[in-house]
Amino acid sequence: MSGRIKLLGRISIEAELKAKTGLAIGGGDGGPSLGGLSVGGLSIGGLETAVVRDPLTGEPYVPGSSLKGKLRALTERALGAQLVAVVEGKSRRESRFLHRCAGEKEYLSGGGLDGYGGCAICHLFGAIPDRYPVYPTRLVTRDAYFTSASRQALAKRRTELPFTEVKSESILDRLTAASSPRHCERVPAGGAFDARWELNLYAVDGNDLHDEKLLGLLLAGLGLLEEDYLGGQGSRGYGRVEFSGLKVKVSHDGGLSAEAKDLVAKLSAGGTVAAALAISGNPLAKAGS
Ligand SMILES: [Zn+2]
Predict the structure, then answer these.
(1) Residues in the chain with pLDDT values less than 50
(2) How many domains does the chain have?
(3) From ligand 1's centre to the CA of 268, what distance in Å?
(4) Does residue 89 lie in a domain region?
(5) Nearest to residue 12, comparing CAs of 278, 283, 246?
(6) 283: part of which helix (H) or strand (E)?
(7) How far is the CA of 282 from the centre of ligand 1 (A)?
(8) Do the domain assignments include residue 119?
(9) Can you give the pTM of this predicted structure?
């Protein structure tokens, strides 16, 4: 690998991310505070999970890291990529499986995407630091904040907590048959966020790597996410999401190829993920069917 890397351009992808069912996102360790109470993943008066909130405005948002992590996991599994266990907690139960290329050869010769000269997953979402040098990550996933319409609509609704509802469920102990209540905080169905990604395209030693080919993989990931869920409690029906008003445009042109500009021009009409995939082609559908 050489060190002469030039940014050829940047493609921005925008869409409205709408919760079709209640969204419980960010209820992990160490969430931000709400009115002096730390609510991220802690139990306060029986409230089990909490959505992550912007510490300045107190409004729920979808962290770019959560969205990117989910898209990465879904595309890794769809491509059947080699996974390694990354233990994040104390036990194996808390470990996550992530793709990591076995070495520099795999990283540079890659696979997973026809006509792309490198590991599509590692180039798009980033390579886990390893023993070989890596190129900059192509995709930047922004934090997604409420659309102004959602912010106004939810501010008017009298929900249990600001902008969120608390869903009560009962948990049945299978041994004792005792039922205990459980309360989950979530962004109500219909809540919508402005999602945005930037795809950076690079040349190495004067060779255009044609990173625009990664755009199809990102769109395919959005399609997989619509069939899956975002955030917690997905097996209970939470976190179904839908993308609409998809807009793709060149936000910086420092020498983009005709192919890249042509693809963006075709995709610029906006619309749904399915419509965009019909234009870009779905690299995962090809691999799977
Ligand atoms: Zn890889």
Answers:
(1) 27-42, 287-289
(2) 1
(3) 29
(4) no
(5) 246
(6) helix 283-288
(7) 19
(8) no
(9) 0.87
